[in-house]
Each structure stands twice: as C-alpha cells, then as structure tokens.
From TrEMBL, chains A, B:
This is TrmH family RNA methyltransferase. It comes from the Bacteria. Pfam families: MRM3-like_sub_bind, SpoU_methylase. InterPro entries: Alpha/beta_knot_MTases, MRM3-like_sub_bind, Ribosomal_eL30-like_sf, rRNA_Methyltransferase, SpoU_MeTrfase, SpoU_subst-bd, tRNA_m1G_MTases_N.
C-alpha cells in the first residue's frame, strides 16, 4: 500500500487533470467519488487502477478495503483527498478507473440511442433508467455529453457498469440495426407521428432520443423506420427529454 | 413608463432581495427571467407587478411591450438588468410577479402530491410533466422545494400557470381526498406493493411521490389506500423520482 501526504506529489497533480475531458480521453481513465459508486465499480469488475482514501474512509470501510488488492490502495491525507475531490464535502474515498475497451456488443433486445443530448444530468439519468427498465444497452451518438464527468457518473449511480454504454456514430449504428432487421424508432413532437401506446409486442427495437432544444436531427429521422410521439394533453409545450425517454422505455419493455 | 438607470436605486435594491426565499414569502412576489417565461405568465393572467427590460429587450420585443399596460413597464440600463439577473447571460427582460392567492381547488381528476421532494429541478420537472400528462393539479407537502426559485421556474417552463400548484400539509389533503372517495396511492420501492401496470381505469386519483433518498415517509404511507411500485428489471437500485413520476402519471392518465 502506498501513502501520499503532500498535495504537491507528482502523481496527485496528474490525477487532478482527470477533471478535464481531454486528459480523461488521452489516458483512458476517469475518477469516481464515494464508497457507493466505487463498490458498484468493483462488483461489476471494472478495471480499478487506484483507490485513494483518507482516515475517515479507512475507518468506515476497513473490512472492505482489506478485501481489495493492496497494490491498488493509496492512503492519503485529508488535504490530498480534498485537493483531488470535486465534491463540496469529499466522501473519504476516490477511485481511478480505466475506461472499458470496445466490447463486442450483441444487437438484441431494446437499445437507447442518444442524438446530441447535451445535458450531462439528462444523459446520466437516461442510462440509469435504461438499466432499470431492462434495456440491452445505450449508444451515445455525436454531440452527446461525455459520460465520465462527475455529474453524469453521479446521475448514473453505477448503471454504466450494468449495461454497455458505447460511443458510436448513430448513422453507422442505425444501419447495423436495420441490417439485423431490428426496427428503428425516432421521436418527434409531432402529433402526426405514431402515438407510443400503439407500439406493443416489440422484442427488439432501437429508440432514438434527441437534443433538448432541437430534438432528433432531420438527417437521423430520415433513416428511421417510424417516428413516435408522446401525446401532450395539458398546456405544456414539451416534456423533458429524460422524462420522455423514461415513459417510452418502460412502455416498450413492459409491453413486449 | 418608469426609467431606472442606477443600480443604487432603492427599488432595484429591494427587487434583488427577491432572490431570497424569505423575502419572496414576506412580499408574496417572485421574479422570472426571459421573454418566454414572461409571455407564458401574461398569457395565463398571472398578476404582473413590473416588467423590466433593457435596450436589447426593447428592440427584440417592442410590439409585445406596446401591448402591455404601460404602468407596469420599467426601462432599465444594462447594468441594472445585470445586477438583478441570476443568469450568466441576462436575457433582456425580467418580470416581478405576485404569487397567486389560495384558490378554491376542485378535487377531481388526477393529482400529484409531493412529500419532501427536495431537489428544485425534480420538483419543477414533475410539475411540467403533470401539466403535459393532463393532471388536475399538484400539492407540495412539507419539506418540498420552494417553487419560486429560478431553477424550479426554469424547469417548469410556465407549467405553474397551467394547473394549480398548492402548498398544503399532506395529511390534511389526504383526508380531503379520502372524504371525496378519491383513492390515494403511495409509491414505494417494494416488489410486494402493486405493480403500477395493474392500475387502469382510474378517473380520479391522488399519487404521492417521496423524498429522493428516503421515499414517501412511513406516516404518510400508512394513510394511503394502496402502495404501488415500478418494477426494476435491470441492476439499477432505483429510478430518479421525477422519472418514476413521469412513468406513473402517463400510465394513469392514458389508461383512464
């Protein structure tokens, strides 16, 4: 087990750079905070590089820490933990995780595809809902938020370890779904589209949700088999995209 | 029409205090920013006290401003608008609205009741979804977030003007629903509760959503007629409360 007590330590300085997206992508690593998320990552066999903890973390989770590979553990001072943490109140434990390598995914069941969804909280919540509803995976198309920032990681509550979440160009993926004879549905605020309640009995599907302001882009909509919408019955102009995705995923999964 | 050019103006200093919850409640007034929300408020006959605009607001929305009561209008300098605004980029127009007085509400149709929902974004999104799904109103119980802070007002996108949103003790309201023979449903992460898909054909109902961490309190659950849950089929531990509310409200409203 290592021990680092100074915030000026070179390794600590390097780890802090993981708050930047570019550094995360260059190093293919990211940081998670708090025991709950770290426990989820370990359970899911994520590739853990380091687990840093201060005295509080060590006393609260000593039994769990004893069960981890000792070579991964780094005991740090409160100052070091605070200097790395992005939380107002650091939770005693931080882990550095290696990003998953490209998986051989199987196109079957239900898939959620995100076209340029920009709010990190929305992306994280949709991945968590896809996990809860029982979808097979999530594909992040061009423009969709990076999932390895702290806000998305917190909104996902570990769901990124439960189902594949893959960054891929949507056009390429839509063509693959079509080749596999899986129907591809766009979503649109357009009462002339198919009301979602009519879609039942779909064992397999790809569902595309779009940008918070503009919706799914017209180039992507043209490639879909059909467009569906959620009826708006009150005076609201639209639904939040994560709410709309939740309604659609639960409807499709529970009416297979 | 008034004109205020100095940030040291007494009235401007008073208006700034509306960023504080206590001052909003004492004065029964709140502030909204941006043309879209202000237009929604005017359309819905909200009680407008003042509309402040800078040169940009005046040039973009001159026709609309001409149609408003000139006694409500205050032309201000960019500095004044910036000093009042809570947005990183002020949008040229700010309005001061008087809070609605207690309405005589009619207990019919579907109602959403919030028990200690603390995240302002969640509360705002749930009110917007209740509006979209066609519910009759929303009741904010003890501990639920104030709806007149900027984040909730933005998440609601004007839905607070489309249906009654009332702050009332939940126990009192549950008793009123029961006296009116309207079934009251609690929600719980408990697979022994009734799966929500089984609830159909309900013309009237009260649906209670609970705190982000603890759910609906046990004292409130004891008062309900039944407890329902949303099946979790993947490995996620729970759903975000606003997502769960969206799934339930759309299911209940579209299966009346």
């Amino acid at each position: 087990m290592k021990e680092i007590l100074s915030t000026k330590n070179t390794m600590i300085k390097e780890l802090k750079k993981l708050h930047k997206k570019k550094h995360r992508e260059d190093n293919q690593e990211y940081m998670i905070e708090g025991f709950h998320l770290i426990e989820e990552a370990v359970k899911a066999n994520a590739q853990i590089k380091w687990i840093l903890f201060n005295q509080r973390g060590e006393s609260e989770w000593s039994a769990w820490l004893n069960n981890q590979s000792q070579e991964q553990l780094i005991r740090v001072s409160d100052e070091v933990l605070e200097s790395i943490s992005e939380l107002p109140t650091p939770q005693g434990m931080i882990a550095i995780i290696m990003m998953p390598t490209e998986e051989d995914i199987q196109l079957e069941g239900g898939w959620l595809l995100l076209d340029n969804v920009q709010d990190p909280g929305n992306v994280g919540t949709m991945i968590r809902t896809a996990d809860a509803a029982g979808l097979s995976g999530v594909i992040l198309g061009e423009g969709s938020s990076d999932i390895y920032n702290t806000k998305v990681l917190r909104a996902m509550q570990g769901s990124n370890y439960h189902l594949p979440v893959i960054r891929k160009p949507l056009v390429e993926m839509i063509n693959k779904f079509k080749a596999a004879k899986i129907p591809v549905y766009g979503t649109e605020l357009n009462p002339e589209a198919i009301a979602y309640q009519k879609l039942t009995g779909l064992d397999q599907y790809a569902l595309i949700m779009g940008n918070e302001g503009q919706g799914v882009s017209s180039e992507i909509l043209e490639l879909t088999d059909e467009t569906i919408y959620i009826p708006i019955r009150g005076a609201a102009e639209s639904l939040n995209v994560a709410i709309a995705a939740g309604i659609l995923m639960y409807h499709l999964e529970l009416n297979k």
